[in-house]
Amino acid sequence: MSYSVLVQPSGLRFTAQAGRSLLRAAEDAGVVLPSSCRNGTCRTCLCQVREGAVVHTIEWPGVTREERAEGWILPCVAEARSDAVLDVPLASGFGD
User: Fold this and answer.
1) Which residues lie below 8 Å from residue 66, measured CB to CB, with a gap of 6+?
2) Are 37 and 74 in contact (CB under 8 A)?
3) What pTM does this model have?
4) Distances in Å between the alpha carbon of 7 and those of 15, 60, 80?
5) Mean pLDDT in the chain?
6) Can you tell me the distance from the alpha carbon of 86 to that of 72, in angstroms, rounded to the nearest whole number?
7) What are the φ/ψ torsions at residue 4 (nearest 5 degrees)?
8) DSSP string, 37-81
């Protein structure tokens, strides 16, 4: 299964395969999302889901319950469960 992910405000798109983190799927497609630790603790990749379903792959990612309720996720430890729109102001394409 795969899902289409739109990154705003850049308009970049990538396909997220089931079982692959959003961060890795973006990188596979040449989309650069802010990142550092890649294990859900540093919050460098923190972004907001505007549309769609996304789940974290670890029990206690570095996001509060309040942030989760507002749609904040850590793409390094999250996977798409539907087509999605992410708000990632610092996203770019490789070479940008």
Assistant:
1) none
2) no
3) 0.94
4) 11, 25, 13
5) 95
6) 9
7) -90, 130
8) SSSSSS-TT-EEEEES-EEESSSS-S--HHHHHTTEE-GGGEEES
